[in-house]
Amino acid sequence: MHKKILAMIGILFCCTIVSTAQQMKGIWAGVFEADDVLASVRINFDENKIVLSFAGSDRSGTIKDLKIANSEIMFTGEMQPQARFTGKIENEKISGTFDIIRSNGSKSGSGVWNVRKVDSMEFTEDSTPVSNNEKIELPPPTGKFLIGRKFFYWTDESRAETITEDANDKRKLFVQLWYPAKKSGKQAAEYYPNIEELRGKSEVNDILRRLKTHATTDAKIANSKRQFPVIIFSPGLGSSPFSYTAIIENLVSHGFVVAAINHPFDSGDFKFFDGQIIRFASEKWDKEVSKDWTAEQRKQFFDERRFGWAQDISFVADQLEKLEKPFKDKLNLENLGVLGHSFGGQAATVACATDKRFKACANLDGMAQGNAFLPDKQGEVLKQPFLFFNKSAEVTSKELKIMGLSRTDYRIREQKRLLERWKPSFKTRLMELESGAYFVLYPGIKHSSFSDSLLIDSKDALFSERNAIAQKINDYILAFFDKFLRKSDAPLLDGKTPPPAPIVVELLKRSK
């Protein structure tokens, strides 16, 4: 009798395993959540396949060592990173924990996973149809001042142009000065002057030609009881300052003067006053062309160009001091700031490390060598107040479908870990700066969102959505320079005004 009972238990146990294993067939989709990431996961037990997805990037692998007993499941996902999963099966859902495993077999982290049974491994992105008549325009500046724009062509006779073959070439800069202006009937400033000479013919040029600025060419500078603080702007590598018109115009409308630099052979193409067209030196910057370079040679080239940009920024400050009236009397050169995007943001930090005339430094998404700021040639780092404004990746709409979450639900869950995704060493370096740093993260935007391409690319979203993103970016840039060049309150930066979703703001400063 005892043997019969044991046999019956064994049969029931085997039937349970077979039944559970049968239940596991098919495809499962859901959430993979660790301390530093909230991602989507898809599992196909029929094909022993697992796919982890985040921000449009897939990491796929095979399922190994699958074990199912009653409602318990264990397996290893052979992907990058490798993970060991354990979970509990309830109806058509599984929830459990996982350990992330290093190549040497040690544990590097852990988290939770939750999946549900679905009909297919394939999910599609939501697409937002945009009308051909959708707006492509620059948003109106939010300040009270009208805007003027004037061109200057300056040559630094003290510096050779090292990127060209002619030893007699000197460093030539095309600088656009944007300033608060008096009302006048002068000609509206063209968005991108000499566009066909510089860019040839293309559909994009047709769009750029139709763009209307809010500036007037060579208008008289506005009267004001106080002088206007000055910001020197440095663009991204291969980019023209004209491509940042929305940010520049907004600053000027609030009473700042902006001197925007075309760095020769490094930023966008431009036409010098003598008719010479100076183009981006793609043959030098293209890493594929320089395959024979060592890593050290490449670093040396990048450092040399970056130091050159920093010298350009200081040279422009020198030239501004030499301007004649009425600009000479209206510019407050005791309150100089530097703003840069990408490579220009890196150069801004180098310029501020060397040149103590600058009172504030802002870097828009200019990461280099894993850091938000770089030392100058003497190894010094900036001591001025610093803003590092960066993008942060988000899951795609397809990944949200896989996870079974709305964008709002995702952001609520993601908010807690957003700042923790950055390595402690990165944040520590910011904290160790003499004046600390404001660290602003904007989830979901792109590197190019800090330029006008955000407003021009109507394929991404409706104008109202693109305009709202641009306005939030402008608000933080303005708040930073208001605080440190005008000594005004900055509730957006200092926590008195909660940041608009989904932006996260942190002041990193070592307590004394």
Strand arrangement across the biggest beta sheet: 11-12-9-10-14-13-17-18-19-20-21
Beta fraction of the residues?
A: 25-35%
Number of separate strands: 21
| Biggest β-sheet strands, sense, barrel | 11 strands, mixed
CA-based shape: elongated
Number of helices: 13
**Total domain modules:** 2
Q: Low-confidence runs (pLDDT<50, min 5 residues)? A: 1-20
Could you say what the CATH architecture of the largest domain is? 3-Layer(aba) Sandwich
Indicate the structural class: alpha+beta
Give the CA-CA distance, first to last residue: 79 Å
Describe the overall structure.
This protein has 512 residues and is an alpha+beta fold. It folds into two domains: 23-118, Lipocalin (Beta Barrel), CATH 2.40.128; 146-508, Alpha/Beta hydrolase fold, catalytic domain (Rossmann fold, 3-Layer(aba) Sandwich), CATH 3.40.50.1820. The protein contains 13 helices and 21 strands. An eleven-stranded mixed beta sheet has the order 11-12-9-10-14-13-17-18-19-20-21, sandwiched between helices. Strand 4 and strand 5 (72-78) form a beta hairpin. Helix 6 (295-321) crosses helix 8. The longest helix is centred in the middle third of the chain and has 27 residues, at 295-321. It is elongated, with a radius of gyration of 28 Å.
